[in-house]
Predict the structure.
Amino acid sequence: MIEGSPWHDPRELVRVAEVKGNMLKVSIITAVLNNFKTLECCIISVLSQLYRNIEHIIIDGGSSDGTLDVIKEYKEEISYWVSEQDNGIYDAMNKGIRAATGDVIGILNSDDVYTDEFVIENIVKCLSEDNVPTCYGDLVYVDQNDPSKIVRVWKSCDFSKEKFKRGWMPPHPTFFVKKHVYEQYGVFNLDFPLAADYELMLRFLYKYNVSTAYVPKVLVKMRTGGTCRPGFLNTPKNVIENYKAWKINELNPNPVTFLLKPLSKAFQYINRR
């Protein structure tokens, strides 16, 4: 364990489930750059999952702080990792997708954690029982220094295409996708440095009608202030990219779509509990 970690060592946990040949394999991809302070919590969050057929892939952008020390501490538990310069977080995610050998792919940012040890088990259950290639759930933003303090609640809902026109989108860290969907419809578009996740989900769910299901549970705790969070000053750029996402996919949004999208975030602060 890295000195000073407040977490137990998951390698000491009693494993209550065994990998079975017919279980879906889940690849979890974490992109990181100079984030040694919270990466260990992210890794332990994955290792603590009771669903056992998981591979964790870490794509490091060439960190110069203690990030590599954390990765090497857990190298026996990490399925694949690489440290090299890239063209941003979405490029790193694309590298992880291409390296993944799982049936299902999820993205977990280096400063985020799963809410409990049943998250991946619930995801696989949803994908199997609903017979869908994608699914998503709810997310909470927590204080950067105190993950027990909820700052904002992103409660999603059942999917319909029309909700995209009202500014809706699923929380991307809760969005799990079978690998064949990426192979068929593409990965993150690097022309969208702020909104590649929005463009990808719009492309999958709206343009190509990839079916999905909603898991009505909080799946991820996301720390505020992370390196991939757009922030208030980037809001105009984010709106422009959102508009571009519709146009590049030859789709026609409502005129109010791009006003409603940032407005929905305000209600996430009001409705937090």
User: Anything to note?
Assistant: The domain at 10-270 is CATH 3.90.550.10 (Spore Coat Polysaccharide Biosynthesis Protein SpsA; Chain A). The beta strands are 26-32, 54-60, 80-83, 104-107, 112-114, 134-142, 150-154, 176-178, 212-223.
